[in-house]
Structure formats: structure tokens, C-alpha cells
Amino acid sequence: MPLFQRPQTVAEGVYQHLRRELLSGRLEAGQWLREQELAESLQVSRTPVREAIRQLAQEGLLQIEVNRGVRVRDLSLEEAVATYEVRSHLESMAASLAARNIDEEARQALQQHLESMNALDPEDQAEHIRADNEFHALVARLSGNPVLEELVEKLSERVMRVKILTRDVNVSAIARSQHAHIVQAISRSDEEAAANAMREHVRTNLQIVEERLRAAREEGETV
Questions:
Q1: Helix-helix angle 77-101:146-163, to 10 degrees
Q2: What is the pLDDT of residues 181-202, one digit of tens each?
């Protein structure tokens, strides 16, 4: 029997479109969105737009303000730092455990995902964010600790808000190099090196976010 494939609903299509626009930065932080305008531009009714907005608000990408409307959620420096401090601890632990539990099948999965990320169109920043999320989720899954995997997944919504600010970094040489170092350390079962590689990767991205948010704050802009 062939696999059942659920047809994409209009609301799901609107959700995926708006999510790509948010992750690519084409919808900027603080920007107001109007249901009617979105419905007209996408040639759909307001109902699927409303459903998509509700879902994106639950993910923390949009903010619904009563009697005012919907806007792209702002990110504070304090929230970014707090999120990445927790991320560093959780994901370095995941990398260490993945190195401890690695087998040949897992090695191949990591290498294949690394190669697929490197093959992505560098202009498609939203797709790079998606692939990066899947890479980190894979490392968490390979940790063999379901509680840790669940915590990483729950934190991912907050991490996503920060990643939007570094969407251009995913295609950089340093990001590719750091991903490769993480995979190499895990693959050779080096727990300490794997944890350090993941910790350095998170720290590098946080430094970029801090620089950009501080620069925007000094200029009196909202990022």
C-alpha cells in the first residue's frame, strides 16, 4: 500500500509562505501585518491567514496585540543572550553524548546531512535555517537521551527568533567549518571535542547577534 500523503491545506500553504518570509528577513522585526492585505496579496480568504498568524505567534515569530494587530516580533539583547546560554549547555551536552553513542549508521546520517546543507542554494536563507535546525535536532536525537532531545526541541522556538538575525551566517565559511568540526568530533567518538565544538559554534553566533543588536540599539533602531 502506498504511503498516505496528506494534502496541504490553504492555511498550511499560507503558514509556510509567511514563515519563509520571516526567516529570510523579508518581513522585518517590528513590521505590522494586516490580515486583509495578506489575504489579498496571496489571493486567499482571511480565515487561512488568521490560522497561519496564530500558529506563527505560538512559535514566537509574530506577536498579536489586542486592538492593534499583528507585528513581527522584536528580539531583545537580553533574551538572545539568555536563550543562547541555555542552548550552549544543552547542545554541548547533546554533542558529547552523541559522540559517546555514535555508530556507523549515525556517522553516515551526520555526514549526509552535512553534505546536503553545503549543497543548498546560498541565496535561500530560509532553507538554510531549516536545514540547520534539522542538523541540531539530529545531534540531539543521537545523544540517546529523550529528555535532552525534548528540551532542545522546546528551546528551538526561541532559538529560531535569534537565528533570523544570523541568517546570512549559515552560508559562511566559518559556519560550514564549525559544522564540519562538530561532525568530525562526534564521528571519532571524542566527547570533549564534540562538546567544545558545539559550544564554540553557539558562542560564535551569539557574538554576531550581540554585535548587531548593540549596534541597532546605539543607532536608536529596533531590530
A1: 140
A2: 999 999 999 999 999 999 999 9
Q: Domain coordinates of the chain in residue numbers?
A: 10-72, 77-218
In which element (H, E) is residue 32 found? strand 32-33
Q: What is the pTM of this model?
A: 0.78
Grid coordinates belonging to 169: 551566517
**DSSP-derived secondary structure letter, 33:** E
CATH number of the 10-72 domain: 1.10.10.10
Residues whose CB falls within 8 Å of the CB of residue 95, separated by 6 or more in sequence, listed in order: 139, 143, 182, 185, 186, 194, 195, 197, 198
Note the Cα 65 to chain centre separation in Å. 24
Fold classification of 77-218 is Four Helix Bundle (Hemerythrin (Met), subunit A) (1.20.120)
Q: Would the CATH topology of 10-72 be identical to that of 77-218? A: no
Residue 79 C-alpha from the chain's centroid? 15
Q: Residue 2 carries which side chain, given as an amino acid letter?
A: P
Helix (H) or strand (E) holding 69: strand 69-72
